[in-house]
Amino acid sequence: MSHTASPAGFCRDCLAPAAAEARRCRKCGSPRLMRHPELDRLTIAHIDCDAFYASVEKRDNPELADKPVIIGGGKRGVVSTACYVARIRGVRSAMPMFKALEACPDAVVIKPDMEKYVRVGRQIRQMMFDLTPLVQPLSIDEAFLDLAGTERLHHSSPALTLARFARRVEDEVGITVSVGLSYCKFLAKVASDMNKPRGFSVIGEAEAVEFLRTKPVGLIWGVGKAFAATLARDGITEIGQLQQMDEIDLLRRYGTMGKRLYFLARGIDDRKVHLDDEAKSVSAETTFFEDYASMTELAPALRALSEQVARRLKKAAIAGHTVVLKLKTQDFKQRTRNRRLDAPSQLADRIFREGLSLLEREIDGTKFRLIGIGVTDLSDAADADPPDLIDEGAEKRKAAEAAMDKLRDKFGTRSIETGYTFGKGKRGHGSNQG
């Protein structure tokens, strides 16, 4: 952020103190100096790994360092992420792969290795917990942190502690992160996006309203393309226009969202950094190599994905209370259906049966290019899958699944299959989420 004063700060590379008027670090010569009038008072941070999947792959294969890299499936898939070289060429996350390769035909395409990314993500997460116990993960590669009260522990301000953390990630993990520092979660997240990659941006309380004034309304948390279009139809395109509007008027026009617009437009966000948002869902999906419309073709994929989800739930000792089915039609329209269970489950059998019931209602001749299954409303596994007094076969299927799990643990996931998946082969490429 720009500011009128030029306070003393520190060098982001060597962490040495930086004089107020210096343009380069007097110790190491780096121009990456961090200064801001509120630098020593701000405590809410958002940390985001830069092009995470692609960065991990480039770390593991130095030959890819200067090449455009896309993480995603084959020609039938979508882009999970792209490195900054590919982004300059126009590649974006969630873009259909064929469009990405049209924009960047020389890109190196790598299928996602979720186990590796999760492993690296956990390593970085533990480093975050070394800074503060108040870490709220948003996904595998980003989190909010509250560093209030950590000055005595780290013998430095939160800003300097974060700079030290960013350098540690580069040195020990081999990828880069961007940091946003502010007084609230909304603006910390905005700041972390400002100067990626290797960014460190600060938005102070004194400058917040003026900073937001000329920004598009889409910058506000919760304002997607559809709602931004609604606001545009009402003549509202910049946050400064919202700053001139009355709270009652915004409530009357847009309901509860109007209240959010009123406060966030003024940089007011009282949400706290919570510990209970580490995982909101566990899911798996696959994009087919060709479109399918019948239950005969879709059910095997649904069963295999249900088994993937169940394995992850059991490994993490958690269970889900709501089953979510995801479908994407051949023209990229998405359908999401869900059903709440009587008790949380981590069983592939239960997840699959509920998903199959939801899928049956969607079989109407529509061809689908993607199917996914997952669970939300996560809880401890201790409450999962109590005895079913109505379904007499449930306990037998539960015991059979436990036996299959033991065989798979010993001989591999494909060592034993159900009738749904046996002999069906691989019809698409998977992408685990959640």
UniProtKB/TrEMBL annotation:
Catalytic activity: DNA(n) + a 2'-deoxyribonucleoside 5'-triphosphate = DNA(n+1) + diphosphate
Enzyme category, top tier: transferase
Compartment list: Cytoplasm
Protein residues bound to Mg(2+): 48, 141
Predominant location: cytoplasm
Site (Substrate discrimination) location in chain: 53
Domain of life: Bacteria
Cofactor entry: Mg(2+)
EC number(s) reported in the record: 2.7.7.7
The record's free-text note on cofactor binding: Binds 2 magnesium ions per subunit.
Protein keywords: Cytoplasm, DNA damage, DNA repair, DNA replication, DNA-binding, DNA-directed DNA polymerase, Magnesium, Metal-binding, Mutator protein, Nucleotidyltransferase, Transferase
Pfam families per UniProt: IMS (PF00817), IMS_C (PF11799)
Active-site feature positions: 142
GO molecular function: DNA-directed DNA polymerase activity
InterPro entries per the UniProt record, alphabetical: DNA/RNA_pol_sf, DNA_pol_Y-fam_lit_finger_sf, DNA_pol_Y-fam_little_finger, DNA_polymerase-Y, DNApol_IV, Rev_trsase/Diguanyl_cyclase, UmuC
Residue stretches making up the UmuC domain: 44-224
Self-association state and partner proteins as the record states: Monomer.
Function recorded in the entry: Poorly processive, error-prone DNA polymerase involved in untargeted mutagenesis. Copies undamaged DNA at stalled replication forks, which arise in vivo from mismatched or misaligned primer ends. These misaligned primers can be extended by PolIV. Exhibits no 3'-5' exonuclease (proofreading) activity. May be involved in translesional synthesis, in conjunction with the beta clamp from PolIII.
Family: Belongs to the DNA polymerase type-Y family.
Name assigned to this protein: DNA polymerase IV
Organism name: Rhizobium alvei
Gene behind the chain: dinB
